[in-house]
Amino acid sequence: MGGYHRGELAVQERAGLARRAASAERAIRSDIPEVAAEFLGRQPFLVVGGADRQGRIWATQLTGEPGFLAVPAPDVLTVDALPPPDDPLAGLLSGADGGGTGGAGPARIGMIAIEPATRRRMRMNGRAVRDGRGLRVTLDQAVANCPKYIQERHPHRIAPGEAAGQRRGATDGDSLSPAQQEALRAADTFFVATASDRGDADASHRGGNPGFVQVVTDRLLRWPDYAGNGMFLTLGNLELNPAAGLFVPDWGTGSALHLTGFARTVWDADEVARVPGAERLVEFEITAVREVAAASPLRWSAPEFHRFNPPVAS
Question: Which residue in 103, 109, 219, 275 has the fewest CB atoms around it within 10 Å?
């Protein structure tokens, strides 16, 4: 499945970037080039987005030793990992049961592999089925994204028992706690999952200087949409389907903050002008929260912020 859908085309036109997007469309492929396969083979984690059995969109992470991602055929990605039972997408990815609809068949997922140390990323979507202890994903789209707004970090993996006092455990809510609000205000990176009106899922990266995520209330977030590749794969999905999910990693502790709800694009010129670097804004209304402590065995170095990150208004 190649090319843009009608939501992406509509946003490109409204943003005045239709010609640029048409030129960029050639970067959308249905296969993974050899150099990208080598990149994927080095990665220790993958961000995945999709819908749960209730139709809510979530974003999460899968981790493994380098090599847990492999490309056995140009249009196939295998993932040697499944989410634990307390993960918000455990039902979707462990069963691969047709995109959370309850029927048998592949689960439609979006994925992004990102290497903070080199600021490289690979974005993919397709149809996943259970394959032993992992997933086999037949790809619909694959696209390499630019390095903008990725903070440089370097990982190391902790051994079992190394994280003193940290045990995996999940807590749920329908709004952000004060500590979660502070974590979001300090965040320089998060990942967003969306899906088209047909259910085709996407996962994407958002980054900026700490403070670029505005916590308006305990159930409402706002962030700037900075200049990018002009494809509008995320905003195009939101044009057709407002359901969305966020995954916010804690790079120091391995904990994961998962949010689901509904998002909309803010085009009002006066509002946008108040936020440095913004070309549009996105507002996200939270309907459910899951925080998983010690969700990942990966720990990361302090960030080196990207030089293109716009300043944050005080």
Answer: 103
Q: Is 99:140 a contact under the CB 8 Å cutoff? A: no
| pLDDT tens-digit map of 245-277 | 999 999 999 999 999 999 999 999 999 999 999
Pairwise CA distance, residues 213 & 192, whole Å: 13
Q: Token pair 């085709």 is at which residue?
A: 200
* Cβ-based burial of 150 (10 A; exposed 0-12, middle 13-18, buried ≥19): buried
The gap between the terminal CA atoms of the chain, to the nearest Å, is: 44
Residue with tokens 């200049």: 227
Is the dihedral angle over the CA atoms 231, 235, 239, 242 positive or is it negative? Answer: positive
